[in-house]
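Structure request: Phosphatidate cytidylyltransferase, mitochondrial, Rhododendron simsii.
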Amino acid sequence: MLQLPQCDLTCLDASASMETEKKLEIAALLKVLPPVEFCCVYGSALHPNNTDKITEVADEIGVGVHFNPFVTWKDKMYKYGVVRMDDLIRDILNWERFYLSGRLQKPVRVFVDNLDIGNINSVNLRAATSAALLLSPSIFSEENLYATICSLSYMGDLRMFFAEDKHKVNKIVQGQFTLFQSMYKPFLEEFATKDLLRFTSSVGNQINVSQDCGLSAASSLVSRLPPAIRSDMALKLGNKTHLSESGQVTRELVIPSREAAAECMRKIVRRRVMVSSARQAVSGLLTVGAVHGVRYVANKMCKAWKSWT
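Returned structure:
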């Protein structure tokens, strides 16, 4: 059995199937990282023992998570990130900063999950499915849907303008298609049973989908979005007040049209991602250091340049 550090959740990007040898290698790396409440930092520009200052930077300037993109272990380079579990759960349930919640909408390898984050994340995956359907046409392929889901966390991301591969979303989906299927199949079936979509045909290992684009269906999709997103949408689109027979006052988001709801949600998510990516970039430079920060951005820009040429 793999011996891992004392943490509540450990997961990795699932960019490829992981062999036993690779799992043991990752486990060996995790063993040498000391168990801490928030994070451990290697080679930080801040004082190595001043974890309070690092926490302050991550919370006040960043989005509550600290990444060290240059962890060297046995001649290999790893990117290691840490976050408080309550911050992670808030982002998963509410898209408060739409940073880690966006990462968990894509396949990851979970090594340790003491708080049942996998189950909590189902709320996030259902909301991502709803958002993607709202942004999708009446007929689309399964791959198109996963690409839309994947693109949610990149809308407005400043790195996409100069430091990311322009084909990144398609590469993620095509390289991990079966993993996306296993993640989102329960939610597609759930939506199908509610007559929000139906499976029209199958081509190869993927299906084609059609959906109800009526106002009632749009309202149902919006109702499955996180509370913080719906609240921001209500500020822009307005609320209707209803008085029940028991005297209870309820408010309902006004949706003038499916297109209006989709565009409103797109702008809100885009702004969240833009703000979070900017804050995290500044936080990273302060905690990792200018030299490592420039090195990381240079590597990203090199990959982006290759994708554009």
